[in-house]
Protein 1
Amino acid sequence: MIVALENFYEVTMVRINPKGNQKNPAMKATLDAVLAKQKAAFDATPNSSWESRKAKLKTLGEVIKAHETDFIEAISADFGNRATEETLIAECLVIQGGINHAIKHTPKWMRPRKVPTALQFLPAKNRIIPQPLGVIGIISPWNYPLQLAIMPLVGALGAGNRAMIKPSEYTPKFSELLKSVLGKVFDEDEVFVATGGVEVAQAFSALPFDHLVFTGSTNVGRIVAKAAAENLVPCTLELGGKSPTIIDPSANMGTTVPRIANAKLLNAGQTCVAPDYVLMPQNQINAFSDAIIEQAETFYPKFAGNDDYTSIIADSHYARLQDLLDDAENKGAKIRVAGNDDKQQLAKERRIPLTVVTDTTPDMRIMQEEIFGPLLPIVPVETQEDALDYIQKRDRPLALYWFGEDNAKREQVLRQSISGGVTINDAAWHVIQEDIPFGGVGPSGMGAYHGEAGFQSFSHMKGVFYQSKLSQGKKLHPPYGPATHKMLGLMRKIM
Ligand code: NAD
């Protein structure tokens, strides 16, 4: 039970380097060879046409749809149980929406853009020409393994790139399936999936890609960013953290409670943008706790043996969550568990029902680490200023949720808090709006993707200045003299 005693990040660290820095020259040679092939193929056609990009996006959509049931089964087997509908809603549907949106809008995003030219340089002109970057590396996590491998791929292919993907070793059945499914429709020099453990991930993150997208924990994100920096590979880091949920006294509890319960219990809380903790006035906490426990029991009359409820991915994460609860209880928190399931059965299935934690204090680990499970601590705050102060003193979160009907207070939160994204009067839905960027800020990530944000992240937005035949620029050439000074004077006046 050594792992059980560690926190979330240490669970990850044990995995990062289980037996020291293992070397596998054959695996590294394979990765190097595939990257070289992809780069050579890219160099042969560096600016792929819209037709070829569209064909790839369509093929991707079709092959995923054709293997939907296989993906649902593989993911469920990797988790122990994952509700079919959760995979359909949070993975397949998101991908379909992302591909359709890319097919509809990429022709417009690809076009060279006319931009203004400052008066002193007229009649020259400026353009921004989006250009594919080359080969994009994609490292993805286990919690939504299909969505988080494929959505960056949609952005990469739409922007005209080739891609190599390293899915998580926590979902081995899914990862092998992904490799075989994509291998059916893409040549190795277009899209390649590298499966394997952490040593593959380490070798992968050290490759000289043209851009690297990493989705995972903040801790591993730091390691990946360092590896990428060795080759000056630019990174999009989609990381985690604690996403706060403010419930204002003006909130309609009839809609707030089921929405929070749903977002928290989807995938059993193993969602990067799940509400991590709730901030609300002390005098409403008991009523809210009762209501959300009742709501969870309505959603899941039983947690054990219920196909609608997802298991915790691995024993190490199950133990980590139990440890967070033990630590909170030892420090004075009150714990309420939804349902009335047999504890041994729950443990056997790695299921944890919604667990509400009250009387929390900042020294509890549950208030310091990303929870990533169905535990919901509540922090009492008397005013919105107290809630904002609590959030501002901590790492900038990936998501923030605000529930209420008081528009002035809503605007205050939007102005004064900094988070990757926000959903108002619900949770998590901002992530699948293709017209807004998805990404974190500070410790919850850097860069963004989805929709046009993804297209821009995986493109080089090349600035081009077209000089005019009528340019007076030669007056700025040496030898400098009165003409230069006259020109300088003029430019200073109009700049
Ligand atoms: P993780 O960081 O442990 O692993 C993510 C990926 O990194 C895996 O593919 C793994 O193989 C790889 N990896 C592990 N060690 C590595 C190393 N030393 N070098 C290079 N790569 C390495 O994350 P996880 O446990 O799979 O996922 C959970 C975390 O991901 C949570 O923190 C969650 O918030 C975050 N997450 C973020 C988003 C987002 O979009 N911002 C989405 C999902 C999950």
Protein 2
Amino acid sequence: MKISASILGCDFSKMGQEVKKVEDSKVDIIHLDVMDGHFVPNISFGSAVIKSLREYTNLPFEVHLMISDPRKYLKDFVNAGADTIVFHMEIEDDILEIIREIKKYGKKVGLAVNPETDIEKIFPYVEYLDLVIIMTVHPGFGGQSFMKDQIYKVRKLKDKIMEINKKGLEIEFDGGVNLDTIKFAKEVDVDICVSGSFLFNSKNTSQTVKLLKS
Ligand code: DX5
Ligand code: ZN
């Protein structure tokens, strides 16, 4: 299982060092939560911040866009150094066109599904995706509790993946992951878990990453 460190949980006054710290602690991915105060009721940071963090690590940057109009800003996030660009299924735009545009930039593409959204909604796009994020909290804030009632979505998605014989698609849980809840991810064999507040609040991040992975 890979661990993706959500920068939303770090000390914003020293983001660069925080990124270095989790890299040294052997996380696999840096997860960057972009919020526009419209798609979700909170504002976080944008492409300029991500660009400035790029020089602190060689780990892959997974940019999680919780914004209403991702299409408008794709180029900015590509230029900021994103390796994977994830946007939400629930936006009002042509999903396939955005997927194509992200691929045109040579980046990996992911779709995220909110807790209240049926997983079946993403089935028409599965063949084009590198990543699916199953939200295990309502997006917008770190430090919320893991929603167990989202776990069933993994099996449904895996059935679909089998059915169309799709290779290389990763499944990720985002929200509320800690040492207790990661066992649910293990049970259904999720590929990646995001960890924000739990990781950054822990005294020994290396030890925490080791424990999460085991
Ligand atoms: C929620 C974000 C998550 C969040 C995870 O809107 O998408 O990535 O930062 O934080 P924790 O691990 O604190 O739930
Ligand atoms: Zn996220």
